[in-house]
Design a protein that fits this description.
Keywords: Cell inner membrane, Cell membrane, Electron transport, Flavoprotein, FMN, Membrane, Phosphoprotein, Signal, Translocase, Transmembrane, Transmembrane helix, Transport. The chain is α+β, with helices and mostly antiparallel strands. The protein has two helices and five strands, in the order H-E-E-E-E-E-H.
């Protein structure tokens, strides 16, 4: 074998070895991905279930919220997922996501409404508001968000669904009126959506 042939053979062997190593590494990565995917999905489901439970009174429902789902057209025209809460088989509330606009961008919330259109609970799940000012919408910071509980589109009246600075009943924050204003508007929009889709949401035919 000439020196040139020896070099060629060595190069081919090295290339083949690299290909085998790459194939083994790819297979290992795929295997690890498949092995952890189920755990990731289970963790996401637990987080979602906990988020939904936060807007319901303790012991309010006894069904698996994640398995009782319907969809309706959202405010943006896209399908909106709605989870239905049941007590001994009877629909006692629905839960869905809404969003508003604060000082620093979108504020995303989850809210629960009973069959009569009254708020059962609201929680902020994502925002970028200023710490110490706008973050008072978080339940861990203040109980301001609890102020929606028990209210409906008719209680208060339409013109009172606003912060006090705008003639409404909801407190604003010192130096941060835009944030609570965005949340109030989002919750009101959520109630309007419920009123529009109520027949579908609380019907077992849906």
């Amino acid at each position: 074998m000439s020196a040139l042939d020896a070099i060629r053979a060595r190069l081919l062997w090295q290339a083949g070895s690299l290909a085998v190593v790459a194939a083994v590494a790819t297979a290992a990565l795929l295997g690890a991905s498949h092995a952890t995917q189920a755990d990731i999905e289970a963790a996401a489901a637990r987080d979602l279930a906990e988020s939904l439970a936060q807007v319901l009174p303790t012991g309010f429902a006894n069904n698996d919220l994640l398995k009782d789902v319907v969809t309706v057209p959202g405010a943006d025209g896209k399908p909106l997922t709605v989870w239905r809460a049941r007590k001994d088989g009877k629909i006692v509330g629905v839960i869905y996501r809404v969003s508003g606009t604060g000082y620093a961008g979108a504020i995303r919330l989850v809210m629960a409404v009973d069959p009569d259109g009254r708020v059962l609970g609201v929680r902020v799940v994502e925002h970028h508001e200023t710490p110490g000012l706008g973050d008072k919408i978080e339940r861990s910071r203040t109980d301001w968000i609890e102020g929606f509980n028990g209210h409906s589109l008719g209680d208060p009246g339409v013109d009172r669904w606003a912060v006090k600075k705008d003639g409404g009943i909801y407190d604003q924050f010192t130096g941060a009126t835009i944030t609570p204003r965005g949340v109030v508007k989002a919750v009101r929009s959520g109630l309007e959506l419920f009123a529009h889709e109520r027949g579908h949401l609380i019907s077992d035919e849906g």
